[in-house]
Design a protein that fits this description.
Blueprint lengths: L3 E7 L3 E2 L4 E7 L8 E7 L4 E2 L2 E4 L5 E8 L4 E16 L3 E10 L8 E2 L2 E5 L1 H15 L26 E4 L5 E2 H11 L16
Parallel strand pairs: 5-6
Antiparallel strand pairs: 1-2, 1-7, 3-4, 4-9, 7-8, 8-9, 10-13, 11-12
Length: 196
């Protein structure tokens, strides 16, 4: 059985690892938003009324390391905070978290791309999101960088993407591009599979 260690941080720098009672990560792959749930020891009002107090939209980074030194690191956003009072276990708080990519579902895009590569299409969609997002929404960074696991979509494809017929969410447009790459080159794909 694989052993894991983890570090949980309320960004920018408040480590809350010692207060974690349970962690549940749901990484569903391309097409659905990542989510997680952590249960915290909330004795004496910690996280609810005494420092550090959690609030919706706070950023929480979870870093998990397995016994082979493989790392999984993800930044989530607080969605719901649910206080629990249990006679047998004391005060706790369940914190439901969403991957920050859920903000891409709040921005509509209407643009047509003709004979564009998957790389430049996704870069343009994300640039549009970054230009009109609200101040509390995260900025997508390094989406134009083609190394170190950022944007590894093919640069040699030349496909048409018609997101201008009707409005589509930026996240859905990105999913369309990524999922279409699995088809054959003759059908406008890349003959390979990619993830968002």
């Amino acid at each position: 059985m694989t052993e894991f260690s983890y570090v949980v941080t309320i960004l920018p720098s408040t480590v809350i690892t010692d207060d974690i009672e349970e962690i549940e990560l749901i990484d569903v792959g391309t097409g659905e938003i990542k989510s997680a749930k952590i249960t915290l020891n909330a004795l004496n009002g910690k996280f609810l009324t005494s420092t550090p107090v959690l609030a919706q939209f706070d950023k929480i980074k979870i870093k998990i390391t397995d016994d082979s030194s493989n790392n999984y690191e993800q930044i989530y956003e607080v969605d719901r905070i649910i206080p629990i009072k249990n006679a047998g276990e004391g005060y706790k708080v369940d914190v439901e978290l969403l991957g920050q990519e859920h903000h891409l579902q709040n921005i509509d895009i209407t643009k047509q791309f003709y004979f564009k590569s998957a790389t430049s299409t996704t870069k343009d969609i994300i640039d549009f999101y970054n230009d009109i997002k609200g101040s509390s929404q995260p900025t997508v960074e390094n989406h134009g960088t083609f190394t170190s696991g950022n944007n590894e979509l093919p640069q040699w494809t030349a496909n048409n993407y018609e997101f201008g017929v009707s409005e589509v969410k930026a996240y859905d447009a990105l999913i369309d591009v990524v999922e279409g790459l699995g088809s054959s080159v003759a059908s406008g794909g890349a003959g390979d599979f990619f993830e968002l």
